[in-house]
Amino acid sequence: MIIKNTLLVPSDKTGVWLVRTFHLYGGFLKKFSSSGDLIKISVQKTKVNSVVLKKAKLKSIIILTKKLISKNDSSYFKFKINNCILLKRRLSPIGKEIFGPSLFSIKRKKFMYSFSGSI
After folding, report:
1. Closest to 62 (Cα-Cα) out of 44, 45, 79
2. Residue 61 DSSP SS3
3. 8-state DSSP, 33
4. Beta carbons of 20 and 48 less than 8 angstroms apart
5. pTM of this structure
6. Gyration radius of the chain's alpha carbons
7. How do residues 5-29 score in pLDDT, each as one tens digit?
């Protein structure tokens, strides 16, 4: 579950280490977002020679959340950090490849086919 002012770690190779959420897309009264939703973020920490500058405002899609996720067969899984992927436009990512796990519901979207790297 992601709310406003939540810190996220990008899981793509753009040179950004930390971002902060300041807007949730999906309605005026939306209080939280989960995996697969679009959010607006501001960049907090970057590498020295990064493509994305500090204090930049970008859109991103949430990949993983810390919240416990249960499946229909009564199994569950939980991740340790909140991850996102930075976007240029609606479904075009800034980085060329992602690293780490991602949920199957995200992999089924057209978004994941736009990556050139291994998934």
Report:
1. 79
2. strand
3. B
4. no
5. 0.83
6. 14
7. 999 999 888 899 999 999 999 888 8
